[in-house]
Amino acid sequence: MSQPGYDGMFVPHDQDPRQSATPSRGERAVLVDYLDAYRLTLELKCEGLTPDQLATPAVPPSRISLLGLVRHMARVEHSWFRRVIEGQDLDKLFSEAGGDGGFTVPRADDGSVSAETVTEAFDLWRAEVAHAREVLAGVELDHLVKVDDDEIEVRDLVVHMIEEYARHCGHADLVRECLDGRAGQ
Predict the structure, then answer these.
(1) What is the spatial distance between Cα 148 and Cα 77, in angstroms, rounded to a whole number?
(2) How many CB atoms within 10 Å of residue 19?
(3) Which of 13, 77, 110, 130 has the fewest CB neighbours in a 10 Å radius?
(4) Are 68 and 104 in contact (CB under 8 A)?
């Protein structure tokens, strides 16, 4: 499969929207910038695909698809920032989907995925990201939050979010490469 674009990349290296003209300074800025870079990476991996491509799992029997990853990360953002940091008493998103964390993408009777399903997933994810940014901007990194029977610092939660995105962006690399040969970046 040929790799479209710039040696299989999505944009020329010097036009990568995740690259900053100046390096981050300080713990908060570094953590926030890494988290935002991974959020943008997930979005880049999804660009230019049809709804059915976005919902295509890469390696059966895995159900992981790009759209499933977007749904899952909306759930993760919602859970850590609304439920844990803010302490809201909310059910986890997509808990009715058999407990798979949002990875199962809703399909029509013929197995297709609608543009509306894609729009809903991205709108939800973007709304949760926007809310998470607001929450993070208003809380100190050493603030303690309750997780099960322990208390952890918000900085630990942010590092976990970076890890979660990094792992799933690796999945997204493989899914996208199976779809059209694009990899990396």
Answers:
(1) 17
(2) 10
(3) 110
(4) yes
Distance CA 71, CA 120 (A): 9
Alpha-carbon gap, residue 77 to 32, rounded angstroms: 14
3-state helix, strand, coil in the chain (%, to 5): 50, 5, 40
Q: Which tokens belong to 175?
A: 């899914």
Give the Cβ contact number of residue 180 at 10 Å. 16
Question: Is the bond preceding 61 in cis, omega lying within 30 degrees of 0?
Answer: yes
Stated as kind and residue range, the H or E segment containing 112 is none
Please report the beta strands in 21-173, taking only residues with DSSP state E, as ranges in sequence order: 144-147, 150-153
